[in-house]
Design brief:
Layout (H helix, E strand, L loop, with lengths): L1 H33 L5 H28 L7 H4 L5 H13 L1 H9 L6 H24 L5 H9 L9 H19 L20 H20 L10 H21 L4 H15 L8 H25 L8 H19 L12 H29 L6 H6 L1 H6 L12
Helix pairs in contact: 1-2, 1-4, 1-5, 1-9, 2-4, 2-5, 2-6, 5-8, 6-8, 6-14, 8-13, 8-14, 9-10, 9-11, 10-11, 10-12, 11-12, 11-13, 12-13, 13-14
Amino acid sequence: MDNLKTGTDALFILLGAIMVLAMHAGFAFLELGTVRKKNQVNALVKILVDFAVSTLAYFFIGYTIAYGVQFFSGAETLAEKNGHELVKFFFLATFAAAIPAIISGGIAERSRFNPQLVATFILVGFVYPFFEGIVWNNRLGVQDWLASVTGAPFHDFAGSVVVHAVGGWIALPAVLLLGARRGRYQKDGRISAHPPSNIPFLALGAWVLAVGWFGFNVMSAQTIDKISGLVAINSLMAMVGGTLAAWAAGRNDPGFSYNGPLAGLVAVCAGSDIMHPLGALVTGAVAGVLFVHLFTLAQNKWHIDDVLGVWPLHGLCGAWGGIAAGIFGTRLLGGMGGVSLVSQVAGTLLGIVVALIGGTVVYGALKKLVGIRLDPEEEFNGADLTLHRISATPERETNW
């Protein structure tokens, strides 16, 4: 029975890893559909290569920092307990690789390729696992301290803050240091529209992300005995709430409508295991409205050229999710309890601080040392031709 249990656990978390791996295709197509045609190939290649670099950084450095586990032993030892520790690494590596995938959408269309790979390695190898270890492995005793002061540790079941808020807040200094795309904001105050190049691909990316998210959230239990249908239903309700709220607030704009479910899912990650479904619905709806209004403000008022809106979508909605777990997770509002709003605010703020410092240091250093932006002519020609020597839609083909 023990062998059956460990084998089932390994299969369970492996399926979760595969579902979250598929989400990276969603990141790729969401970005592909949003950027202009001359940058579509770059979006596809960037997400794939970033994932590969993230895996190496997490395998050799990040996983050890977060959990104190390394894989420098014989295969016989690694295969013990059906290799559950290995597939757990696979599962968590797909989470870690979401950090550069999130950042990619914010810095699209004008960032250099190789410096971004260096940033990916540093962020996934050192910055992200530092905070991940604090929250999910009680590194530095922060969780114990919060529990002693507030009565409960910081609760983030599936990464509203650990993954999404951290990724979104790292992206913010990267976007600011890069500057806006050329021609986006005119000196006379006019704003040049850069509409999505392919709404069907944008929608496909959002759908792939939404489906994979049920692996992201439900499989965060990591063992079969801890699986909870409540997590699945809460994820569903938050997705629905985010969709309808963004559709209404965005006045039926397809870009907002398809980012709405993602906003809801980002926000519900933290408390999906302790909220009542109605609390999850409200959490998702608030996230949908938050995304629409903050995306509009950032782009049109503050002139923050965050191409996919990753700071409002992941950074702000992720932070809201961390706080929402402390509100709708309480027994007073139908939740399971065991959370403290003070701890949720403190943990969320800590994640934001770590992300802002990490993002500013990494991208600031790269900007000073090697440069992080394409030159004007390269940006005008597009990242596809500049970096990959081919476009997504070649106008002329060789006929034989």
